[in-house]
Amino acid sequence: MIFCTPRSLRHYPMIPRNWLLKLVGLILGLCLFGWVILDAVETTHSEEWPALPVSHLVLATGLVVTAHGLHGLAWVIGAQNVSGRIQVLDGVSIYSLSFIARYIPGKVWQIGGISYLAKKRGADPYKIAGYSLVFVFAFPCIGASVMLISYFVDDLYFGWIICLTSVPVLALLLSALFSLASEGLVSFLPKYWRDRLRSGLNQPFWALYANLLLLALVWLGFGTSGHVLLRGFAPDWSGSWTQSTTATIGGLIAGFLVLIAPSGAGVREATTSVWLTHFGVSPIVSIAFVITLRITMTLSEFLWAGLGAFVLSRSNKEK
Asked: What is the overall mean pLDDT for the chain?
């Protein structure tokens, strides 16, 4: 029997296997997207690739950058209730810097990075880890709710208005549900984990509502950025905001669910492309769109991570 100490974990074979698992996920995701590309080229071989809509890209990039900032702010609201030692700017920086850990093997690195950076600022790493675990799980759940609303109101007159106005109500209902069910969510866990997760779940109602509302706005920002960019690539497309938002958010959620693909590479693009084709977008246009959106979102994530690293380094020097 092999006993692993913290020092020996650095050489434990599980780490290479995680890299191998991520590599397999990346290959499978890219193969799936490659199949979509080949099918699109075969069916529309005479169609030219669309020109890059610079003005639409600038606006879409602004929406994505703003959404990532709101994402970090949403995390800070709950983190401050778990540990009041975390300041807003430091908290946004901690979450933004740790967010890019989704690109390396093992989803645990994002939670670990958050806990490590928060601990350096006096927060309890176990409580922060418990809260962050719930937060990371809630993010795609909120996105799925927004996606379903946008999908089902598509046939209604001014469906986009209904979708936007329903978001505060959605956040209110989910906050009430979460408050009532939070204790039951951890009751089946061992006491060691139950005590640590309970602090992350037991948030004041106002904080919980603000948290979920901001997360919903993040998803609306992502969906709207996709709509703006798609309008630039396909100005003659007769589809609606709800359709492009549904396709964009649906692809992002698919990428979250496929754990072995780093940041959902390939899976996100294939899902969005297929969905847009279903909504009447040309396959070539949908491929150009998802590639541009991926680059835009990735650069935005690394922009926030770079700003976060700069802020935290300055904060460390001041201390």
From this structure: 78
| Entry pTM | 0.81
Within a domain: residue 43? no
Question: CA 257: distance to chain centroid?
Answer: 11
More confident residue, 221 or 173: 221
Does residue 27 fall inside a structural domain?
Answer: no
> Which of 45-59, 216-230, 284-298 is the most confident on average?
216-230
**H runs (alpha helix) in 202-282:** 205-233, 241-257, 267-278
Nearest in space to 171 (alpha carbons), one of 207, 132, 221: 207
Q: How many alpha carbons lie under 13 Å from residue 274 in its C-beta half-sphere?
A: 15
CA–CA gap between residue 203 and residue 77 (Å, rounded): 10
Taking Cα atoms as reference points, which of 153, 166, 155, 72 lies closest to residue 118?
Answer: 72
Identify whether 32 is part of a domain: no
Of the listed ranges 13-22, 82-91, 213-222, 275-284, the least confidently predicted one is 13-22
- Distance, CA of 71 to CA of 67 (rounded, Å): 6
Which tokens sit at 33? Answer: 């997207």
Token pair of 198, please?
A: 């309970």
Domain count of the fold of the chain: 1
Let me know: does 175 contact 115? Beta carbons within 8 Å. no
Helical axes 125-152 vs 205-233, angle rounded to 10°: 50
Could you list the residue range(s) of the whole structural domain that residue 184 is in? 61-318
Residue 22 placed within a domain? no
pLDDT (tens digit per residue) in 125-138: 888 888 888 888 88
CB burial of 273-303 (b: ≥16 within 10 Å; e: otherwise) equals: bbbbbebebbbbbbbbbbebbbebbeebbee
Number of C-beta neighbours around residue 193 at 10 A: 13
